[in-house]
Amino acid sequence: MFSFNYKEEHDLDAALKRYFPEGIDIYFENVGGKMLDVVLFNMRNHGRIVGALGVGINYFEEGDLHQVVAWIKRIFRFDKTGCGVTLDPKVTGNLIFCIDIATRLVNSQLMGLRKSVCIARLHSAVPGVAKVSRTLEMLTGVLLQRPLRQLHIRTIYESNLMEYDADKHVVVFWISYEADTYVMTLWV
């Protein structure tokens, strides 16, 4: 397996020929656009393009993500579908659903780094933006969670303030964390 940062390459076609002189065997596609156009001309004979479907979801109440996966399978008439990530209730986000042969990649979605932008409303005003910022920066490290009566040990790597509105008691921040961390429960 090999990857490169396409944003650092000025000529994608030349980069693909340089990195994959015999052509590309397998390409995972979930965006389309210019990269896909160039990849198509650099595929090896009998190479495969594995696709994924991204779905924006407003997940307002407790529900079963497996049901959403089943709906996608039925609506689009796919043989196989899978999703390796979840959203907390009352969260809006984009989920990647793997289809057909791409379902082999579902477990890889369960590991790794996630980043989210979060909005929190505080019970009362906090004197000074510096204190809010310092408090958010302290919310890192190992985290023990028990979402479905099973202990999960997860890590929050970084937490940084983006904006604080003292009048409305609203904090906007971003965090990076281990996949499958129940982020919403940090603030309850």
TrEMBL record:
InterPro entries: NAD(P)-bd_dom_sf, PsdUridine_synth_cat_dom_sf, PsdUridine_synth_N, tRNA_PsdUridine_synth_B_fam. GO terms for molecular function: pseudouridine synthase activity; RNA binding. Residues 73-123 form the Pseudouridine synthase II N-terminal domain. SUPFAM superfamilies: NAD(P)-binding Rossmann-fold domains, Pseudouridine synthase. One of its GO terms (cellular component) is box H/ACA snoRNP complex. GO terms for biological process: box H/ACA sno(s)RNA 3'-end processing; mRNA pseudouridine synthesis; rRNA pseudouridine synthesis; snRNA pseudouridine synthesis. Belongs to the pseudouridine synthase TruB family. This is Pseudouridine synthase II N-terminal domain-containing protein.
